[in-house]
Amino acid sequence: MYNSHMRIIKENPNIIKLAVDALKQGGLVIFPSETTYGIAADATNPMAIKKLNNYKKRPIGKPYSVAVSNIKMAEEYVSLNNTARNIYKEFLPGPVTVVSYGKHKLTKGVESETGTLGIRISSYALVCQIVKDLRVPITATSANASYMKRPYKISDILGNISDKQKGLVDLIIDAGELPHNEPSTVIDTTLDDPVALRQGEIKFTDKNEVLSRSEESTQNIAKELFQKYESYLGKRPIIFALIGEMGTGKTQFTKGLGKVLGIKEEIVSPTFNLVNTYTLSPVRYTLNHIDAWRIQGPKELETLGFLKTIEDKNMVIAIEWADRVMSEIKKQREHALIIWVKIKYGKKENERLISWGTL
Amino acid sequence: MIILSIDTSCDETSAAVTDKTKVISNIIWSQASQHADFGGVMPSLAQRLHKERIDWVVDRALSTAHCSLSTDIDAIAVTVGPGLAISLEVGISKAKELAQKYNDILPALKSGVSLQRRMTYQRSIHLRSKLRSVLECCYKPIIPVNHIEAHLLSPLASPSTDHRPPTTFPALGLVVSGGNTQLILIEKIGKYKILAQTVDDALGEALDKAARLLGLGYPGGAILEKIARVGNPDAYTLPSPLIDDKIKNRFSYSGLKTAMYRLIEKEKPLTKEKIYNLAASFQEVAFDHILNVLSYQINHQPLAISHFLLGGGVASNNLLRSKLRKLLRPYEITLHVPYTKKLCGDNAAMIGVCAYLKSRNAKNLNAKLKSIDREPRMKIA
């Protein structure tokens, strides 16, 4: 079944209207861009997206990023935080896809399962004009079926798809062979969202504050703090809820806990792994080192086995970026001793102000 | 030897089919999505645990390779560590399920079962229990693989069977990724000694965090590399980590991270040009730290080394590659990198290749199904 309607037309100034009309009618249009050939569908039209899914043959639950014409249009579909705004300012239009939280105005399946949406503003004039005239975002996925070669010329596409797939395409805008540029870089800005940051909730009394002058002294402060509350261990687990900007020494603090617990292994940043568990042998205490920065919501903390670790009365838990999961930690007040530790940059290069409280 | 391999150590879900060191198919879930065509987006934890991902990538790996699990695949390789425990579990249980479902002896046994129905009651009970015990211990062999070891040996993967890079051991290897930074002496395949490793952040993680400090989102290592190309690496002076160490056997990025934070605060508001220069300056110092430790280790290495293997996500960074090549040239050490950048980030093909290289000394093939378990903090040596 070959679609006689599929038109291949060389790029020319009059083609914008043809493309816009095809998209308005729910059609699929293959277009050139500053990266590869892309395939466009009206991202607000469920029938068009269904058609695109059939064309791309992609697994369920894969989001599409979309192209808009400017930042104002982007804001209709996503919430931009400061990081996102900066990136728009510095890198768009251009080969960068910026992921933000979506406003759920597009067809289901365009945004990701977690409600995020990737947005591009193309530096290729034709694409921008099409979006401008259409007045709604178009999908900006590459025109190959999932897992096929990156399309830099029309034959890259047509040579790799079935007649059935060809039948789904209404218009192909042929701009010859494109320069072999890399696909766009994707930047996720949702992790910088300060939604969970309510540092003001934790109040520290003035006296519980010390000055650290080095990494070693941060480790030492951790050791002393642990020794102060050590007698609770065995009766209740101890949670060190660490709050502090990047580079203040949250991992250094945890290293100190590891030392005082007698853990020989090197304690390293848990950012990549989310959680590192260190067990002493023979087992006496266990140290669970968690990084909550990448954790998106209370459910994920549970998935990591947080509640289960609390059941172990010989458990020491250090949570970095604890402010992001503050309410979840607070819920454990009855079951665990919670020590909130705040680390701030001091005046001099290596100085840190460390304060704590058992709220 | 054709191996189906699975890797679910952290963010990626991946399956591959390899024949000895040749990669036949290498499917990584995120690459199927528009987003990850480009690498970079962090999946939510829930997404990472989706069962449908693992089924999809395994099916895709087999169909792309035109292989049937029951007839073509000789063994199943799976990452058992290091990584996130709950993620590792997804891959391991899938591997076990497939190994049991598609063992070679099962069809034969089934015909045996119908035969036994015709036997006397007494004998049948005896036979049945015997059959059951046989069934329980027969499965396609599973080869447990260390994720770091797979990154380390990933330069030995090849696009065709007769194209293995010529390497001799002992050799040196460097694994640089989001989760690991290790300089390793490879005495031979399977025998390793860690010469240096990170005491805080991994190199990839440090680059990602620097990008985040520059307001580039997370993980931003890839975009940092891109913009660093147009920046001036000498525009700013950042302190070289652990420069005073007498014995250079560790990497550290915590101090550099702090210095970067301070510098950015000082330079605010940031212009495009400042961001480019800061990115270039940070990358330069971060890489020079690696080279610094490496050159010490080469100079103090009693064994004759002529090959160097580079693996892990940051191995795709062109600046790091050229810096290493330049450093190694006077020592007449050849740098080997994975033949495609797809083998740098987390992927299953490297697991299959590693499984093959290790299983040549056969004892790995005899691992008991029950004894294969996740090892979140697995060590290579």
UniProtKB/TrEMBL annotation, chain A:
<dbReference type="InterPro" id="IPR003442">
    <property type="entry name" value="T6A_TsaE"/>
</dbReference>
<dbReference type="InterPro" id="IPR050156">
    <property type="entry name" value="TC-AMP_synthase_SUA5"/>
</dbReference>
<dbReference type="GO" id="GO:0003725">
    <property type="term" value="F:double-stranded RNA binding"/>
</dbReference>
<dbReference type="InterPro" id="IPR027417">
    <property type="entry name" value="P-loop_NTPase"/>
</dbReference>
<dbReference type="GO" id="GO:0061710">
    <property type="term" value="F:L-threonylcarbamoyladenylate synthase"/>
</dbReference>
<dbReference type="GO" id="GO:0002949">
    <property type="term" value="P:tRNA threonylcarbamoyladenosine modification"/>
</dbReference>
<keyword id="KW-0548">Nucleotidyltransferase</keyword>
<keyword id="KW-0819">tRNA processing</keyword>
<dbReference type="GO" id="GO:0000049">
    <property type="term" value="F:tRNA binding"/>
</dbReference>
<comment type="similarity">
    <text>Belongs to the SUA5 family.</text>
</comment>
<dbReference type="InterPro" id="IPR006070">
    <property type="entry name" value="Sua5-like_dom"/>
</dbReference>
<keyword id="KW-0547">Nucleotide-binding</keyword>
<dbReference type="GO" id="GO:0005737">
    <property type="term" value="C:cytoplasm"/>
</dbReference>
<dbReference type="GO" id="GO:0005524">
    <property type="term" value="F:ATP binding"/>
</dbReference>
<dbReference type="Pfam" id="PF01300">
    <property type="entry name" value="Sua5_yciO_yrdC"/>
</dbReference>
<keyword id="KW-0067">ATP-binding</keyword>
<keyword id="KW-0963">Cytoplasm</keyword>
<feature type="domain" description="YrdC-like">
    <location>
        <begin position="13"/>
        <end position="202"/>
    </location>
</feature>
<dbReference type="InterPro" id="IPR017945">
    <property type="entry name" value="DHBP_synth_RibB-like_a/b_dom"/>
</dbReference>
<dbReference type="Pfam" id="PF02367">
    <property type="entry name" value="TsaE"/>
</dbReference>
<protein>
    <recommendedName>
        <fullName>L-threonylcarbamoyladenylate synthase</fullName>
        <ecNumber>2.7.7.87</ecNumber>
    </recommendedName>
</protein>
<keyword id="KW-0808">Transferase</keyword>
<dbReference type="GO" id="GO:0006450">
    <property type="term" value="P:regulation of translational fidelity"/>
</dbReference>
